Amino acid sequence: MKLAARKACGAMIFGLISSASIAEFNPTDPGLTSSEGNLKITLNVAQGIQIQGLTDIALDLNGIAAGNDLIGRDTFCVGAIGFSNYKIQFDSATAPTDGYLLDGVGETLAYNVAFSANTANTATGVQTNSDGTMTSTYTPNTGYSCADSEHNAQVIVTVPAAVWETASELSYSDTLTITVSGE
Predict the structure, then answer these.
(1) Cross-strand pairs, 79
(2) Do strands 141-142 and 70-81 pair parallel, antiparallel, or not at all (unpaired)?
(3) pLDDT tens digits for 128-166?
(4) Are residues 85 and 157 in the same domain?
(5) Is 102 in the same domain as 146?
(6) Which of 162, 156, 153 is nearest to 128 (CA)?
(7) Does 96 lie in the same domain as 168?
(8) 78 and 119 in contact (C-beta within 8 Å)?
(9) Residue 112 CA: distances (Å) to CA of 63, 159, 176
(10) Which domain holds residue 67?
(11) Confidence band (pLDDT; 50, 70, 90) for 17?
(12) Angle at CA of residue 172, ends 128 and 154, nearest 5°
């Protein structure tokens, strides 16, 4: 009786083990015409976030009448794996503390930065905080690969008319660093 109970218990345990998803199974006895084993395959994808598709913004006065702001924009992609949202920050190389400055030889010109999760050419965006941060969070594309049609973000740079109309030099520049942080 004890032997029969042990065999029944062993068969139940074997049945549970064979129907469960186990890491691997290597047979202990050879088969007559074939042998079968199992292994578990695991894919681990690292969590990450990436910006793609940034291009330089060239501002010029062609077609701009006095009294109108100079506006430049660039659409780009933010893609992520393992993050459902991201925060974004903008930093000026010329103005390392607060604000944004275009650097000339002897003078600087202030400009403004806005961000939009809308890539339409008519988007106005939301101005950054004085330290370059944005209060809101935004939704990234899933994955790292982005084609132009998958751009989901836009930076909008504005040099106010009152600023560019007082410029005394021919050329000004700045490097704008965009940082995205997954959340």
Answers:
(1) 50, 141
(2) parallel
(3) 998 999 999 999 999 887 866 789 999 999 999 999 999
(4) yes
(5) yes
(6) 156
(7) yes
(8) no
(9) 20, 6, 11
(10) 48-182
(11) very low
(12) 35
